[in-house]
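Long-time lurker, first post. I've been practising inverse folding by hand and with some scripts of my own, and I keep getting stuck on stretches where the structure tokens seem ambiguous. Below is the full token string for one chain I'm working on. Before anyone asks, I'm not after the true native sequence, just a reasonable design that respects the backbone. If someone could post their per-position residues I'd love to compare against what I wrote down in my notebook.
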């Protein structure tokens, strides 16, 4: 059986609504719960995942930008030197990015989440208090 993983789609870099509109993937929350990890203390590290695992494998020349927004916080600013701002909002056609996606094991997601939170190990759920 393979390790649970998160899949990052290249095309999500080209949309304001990409990467689940910036929301934490259900698969991450479920994995944290199943492993007794308090996901409220270790945020899903989307930007780090994209920078470390997706961008390096994209075959096109790509520049990404981090955006302070409630929507997708990391997007392609330029692809092969062409500005993507209009593409984000569907006002221009999307270029094809290859590969289509990358898959990152949950243990790597956790490593990045802990690194971003400045923790050495995952905070555990606290069970109900004894009576």
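-- Answer (accepted) --
I ran through it position by position. Result:
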């Amino acid at each position: 059986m393979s390790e649970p993983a998160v899949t990052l789609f290249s095309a999500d870099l080209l949309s304001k609504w990409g990467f689940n509109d910036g929301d934490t993937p259900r698969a991450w929350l479920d994995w944290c719960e199943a492993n007794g990890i308090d996901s409220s203390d270790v945020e899903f590290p989307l930007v780090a995942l994209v920078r470390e695992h997706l961008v390096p494998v994209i075959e096109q020349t790509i520049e990404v930008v981090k955006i302070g927004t409630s929507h997708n916080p990391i997007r392609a600013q330029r692809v092969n030197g062409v500005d993507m701002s209009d593409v984000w909002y569907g006002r221009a056609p999307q270029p094809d990015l290859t590969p289509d996606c990358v898959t990152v094991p949950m243990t790597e997601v956790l490593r990045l989440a802990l690194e971003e939170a400045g923790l050495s190990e995952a905070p555990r759920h606290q069970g109900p208090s004894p009576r």
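A couple of notes from the structure itself: Strands lie at 5-9, 62-66, 74-79, 82-83, 101-105. The chain has a mean pLDDT of 93. Happy to go over any region you disagree with.
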